[in-house]
Amino acid sequence: MAAHDFDPLAARSDLPAAPILPEGATLNAGRPLTSIPGPSVIPERVLAAMHAPMPNIYEGALVEMSERLLAELPQLAFTDGEAFIAIANGHGAWEMALTNTLSRGDRVLVLESGRFAVGWGNQAAMLGCEVEVLAAPARRGVDPAALEERLRADGGHAIKAILVVQIDTASSVVNDIPAIRRAIDAVGHPALLMVDCIASFACMEFRMDAWGVDVTVSGSQKGLMVPPGLGFVWASQKAIAAHREAGLRTAYWDWTARMGGGAHYMRYCGTPPVTHLYGLRAAFEMIAEEGLENIWARHAVMAHAVRSAVAAWSAPGGLEFHIEDPAARSNAVTTVLTGGVDAIRLRALAEQEAGLTLGVGLGDFQDRAFRIGHMGHMNPPQLLGTLGTIEAVLHAMGAPMGGSGVAAAAAALSGALHAGRVTTAGMRGG
């Protein structure tokens, strides 16, 4: 059967004709589902925790909770370094990292693998740094060999910092951070390695100290399952040493004032983000209950199911992966190129007619891709609902498809279901 002739109902002669909706009717009458790569789905438990009256911000329970959160953050990043919470999104965390470690005129090397490391570099340029971009091969991640070659040419160590993302949310590539550290160490280069984990933190493995990362940044609205508004920065002792000499320090972002010793509210350079801290406390409890390594494994299974679906859908003139190397496809987001399929119409039909919001194509992918977010508080019903709705829209559009992505995803998920552990006691209906 040709790809464009694929029809999973073709062999079912026992089915009556499909009902037709009257003019003005829609299937979009239930709870909408947002499957974008952040903000991710916020658990009811987190939302409930945030619904609380304002406390005393100067002493007592709020201060004690805040100090516990700051003490637990390094554990989640697997570091002995300092952790900071900023009232900001991820872009604010970028700026906190830059202003606390660099000076005007410092050279920064950006490892491009999509959109976001370049955006971080643009911030550095606006702050007065000299920025150089080392581009990744098309549709692939950062090339550690190319980085090593560039650093060998920097005999005078003019490069003070290297900026890279673990996952680029636009391209959906995952970069090999340990391999990047090995490239830096191979030439003995002293530049700070700064890693953006905004799309990867609490979604896939990250070990700051073991991987030789000097500065890590993240945000609250993806794997940490809290609404946008908190930025996080972790700093190694090497980064703290650079901070003491940094010329870009500002009163708001300054680490020294935030490391304690004075009034607690200076941890936030003013009033703490009270409601978000309550939500973060609940999210940390959920992460501890599931176990961080179990969370990484769950994300790997979900990502495999999404990739199985996209591989099944792929057809000439239709959908295909943006990232060509299977090993470089992330476990948090998948960017799908739409070929001859109208990406704007696909997303509009999904959202307006079926209640599913998909991620837009960003930058170079605008109007020719969509993104599936599979991060944070997600389970098989949510994921299969997303994939099933996409498949239904593709059918409605007459898009070419190689096969059923939903069937492929369900098969992929089945391998992770521990059927032998399940008991049916007490499950009989009345």
TrEMBL record:
Q: Which GO terms describe its molecular function?
A: transaminase activity
Keyword entries, A-Z: Aminotransferase, Pyridoxal phosphate, Transferase
UniProt keyword annotation of Nuclease present: no
**Swiss-Prot/TrEMBL cofactor(s):** pyridoxal 5'-phosphate
PANTHER family the UniProt entry points to: ALANINE--GLYOXYLATE AMINOTRANSFERASE, AMINOTRANSFERASE CLASS V
Protein known as:
Aminotransferase class V-fold PLP-dependent enzyme
Say which family it is in.
Answer: Belongs to the class-V pyridoxal-phosphate-dependent aminotransferase family.
Q: Which Pfam families match?
A: Aminotran_5
Which segments constitute the Aminotransferase class V domain? 97-353
Q: Which InterPro entries match?
A: Aminotrans_V_dom, PyrdxlP-dep_Trfase, PyrdxlP-dep_Trfase_major, PyrdxlP-dep_Trfase_small, SP_NH2Trfase/AEP_transaminase
